[in-house]
Amino acid sequence: MTIKVLVADDHGAIRAGLMMILGNAEGIEVVGEAADGATAVRQAKALKPDVVLMDVRMPGVDGIAATRELTTEGLCEVLVLTTFDLDEYVHAALRAGAAGFLLKSVEASRLVEAVKLVAAGEGVLAPQVTRKLITAFAAGTREPSPVPDGLGQLTDREREVLACLGGGLSNAQIGTRLHIGETTVKTHVSRVLTKLDLRSRVQAAILAQENGITLESP
């Protein structure tokens, strides 16, 4: 199945470069482009892409507000790509429901891989961003999100899956860790997100980290 992608970036040259990289990738079709958040939302509603590659800083409606609208309505997955790796952008984008966050310095092959992972329901974080998140949680410098009522409604298995998400494991890795099939993993992840009223597995990972739900040594 071909993955349909919409590219949103206010710099024409960067947008063209991203479209060229993705357009030449096997299994990916670039269906549209946008220079601001409002246009990205309109284009996403009209073109129904699987993934929107979203810049953060754009005129008018920025990428974070656009991400929040797209994920709230369940229109598509959003992969944020930006020059900036400052904490406020990382957390704002992820809490808006972005499925991943990459820096514009990412290699072309990694960008293509990330788009495919996000389209498949996985979460993607740049290594630099992951380190910042872990450091912030360890130092207790990040104000935690409210604890969802649904946290107490998780089954033991769902709580294990949430811990795996907090550890950054993919569906395949979760399946290996918990000795269950990947299809079963996807079912559990879906139930966890529904019970916790979350829009992405990355949001679930943040919640797990903030609430100390961690993987025990195998």
Please, could you describe this protein's structure?
This protein is α/β, with parallel strands linked by helices and 218 residues long. It folds into two domains: 3-136, Response regulator (Rossmann fold, 3-Layer(aba) Sandwich), CATH 3.40.50; 156-211, Winged helix-like DNA-binding domain superfamily/Winged helix DNA-binding domain (Arc Repressor Mutant, subunit A, Orthogonal Bundle). The protein contains ten helices and six strands; from the N terminus they run E-H-E-H-E-H-E-H-E-H-E-H-H-H-H-H. It has a six-stranded parallel sheet, with helices on both faces. Helix 7 packs across helix 9 and helix 8 (171-178) crosses helix 9 (182-196). The termini are far apart. 40% of the residues are buried. The model has no long low-confidence stretch (mean pLDDT 84). The modification 4-aspartylphosphate is found at residue 55.
Features of this protein?
6-stranded parallel sheet; globular; Rossmann fold; alpha/beta; 2 domains; 218 residues; Arc Repressor Mutant, subunit A; 51% helix; 6 strands
Strand line-up across the major sheet: 2-1-3-4-5-6
Helix fraction, binned, reads 40-55%
Q: How much beta, percentage-wise?
A: 5-15%
Largest sheet properties: 6 strands, parallel
Average predicted local confidence, pLDDT: 84
Secondary-structure-based class equals alpha/beta
CATH superfamily of the largest domain: Response regulator
Radius of gyration: 17 Å
The CATH topology annotation of the largest domain reads as Rossmann fold
Count of individual helical segments? 10
Q: Can you tell me the CATH architecture of the largest domain?
A: 3-Layer(aba) Sandwich
- The separation of the N and C termini measures 36 Å
CATH class of the largest domain: Alpha Beta
Element string (H = helix, E = strand): EHEHEHEHEHEHHHHH
Approximate shape: globular
Total number of beta strands:
6
pLDDT < 50 runs, ≥5 residues:
none
Number of domains: 2
